[in-house]
Specification:
With 170 residues, the chain is of the alpha+beta class. The chain has 6 helices and 2 strands. The chain has a two-stranded antiparallel ribbon. The mean pLDDT is 85.
Length: 170
């Protein structure tokens, strides 16, 4: 097996314990939702109201829920970065002691939506702003009342940039 793409840190170990306790019937839906929204940097996957419902549904404290969501997102981001195959992802997760049913759920979700997610990441702009338009103007002052032979160029550059999330030019 290749080197582990999910390091066994303290927070990952704690997240794995919490993930193993999560209801296996609801877990695939949580995975697919996180996978669908993984490429959106500026947005959270769940609203405050949805997070409260998740806390109740999975019987988790707010801090534990955030750890679980961050761990799932991290695992999926690592799968994107390393372009893992579903079987390899499942092996990696079982090596960090994730239950087989949860590892299979990850592999199934990854098989269903992994390539689409990778494509979304490839299309995503890495910088927060993108150069859209360039405008320029050159003014050349040839003389002034005090100087007869003055050559003073003045250039004005206008750069139109847009944020990744909104297409408004600035």
């Amino acid at each position: 097996m290749a080197a582990s793409v999910v390091p066994e840190t303290d927070s990952i170990r704690r997240a794995v314990l919490l993930l193993n306790a999560v209801d296996p019937g609801r877990f695939p839906r949580l995975l697919s939702r996180l996978l669908q929204r993984l490429h959106l940097k500026a947005e959270t996957s769940f609203s405050e109201e949805e997070e409260e419902k998740l806390q109740i549904a999975f019987s988790l404290e707010k801090q534990d829920l955030h750890l679980v969501l961050e761990a799932i997102s991290f695992i999926l981001e690592q799968a994107v970065y390393h372009n893992l195959k579903p079987a390899s992802l499942q092996q990696q997760l079982q090596s960090i002691h994730l239950d087989q049913d949860k590892a299979e759920a990850f592999a199934n979700a990854w098989a269903a939506g992994g390539q689409e997610t990778i494509e979304k990441f490839r299309q995503r702009v890495l910088t927060p702003q993108k150069l859209e338009t360039i405008g320029w103007q050159l003014n050349l002052q040839m003389s002034a009342s005090t100087q007869a032979k003055l050559k003073s160029p003045r250039a004005v550059l206008e750069l139109g940039v847009s944020n990744e999330d909104s297409k408004d030019l600035q």
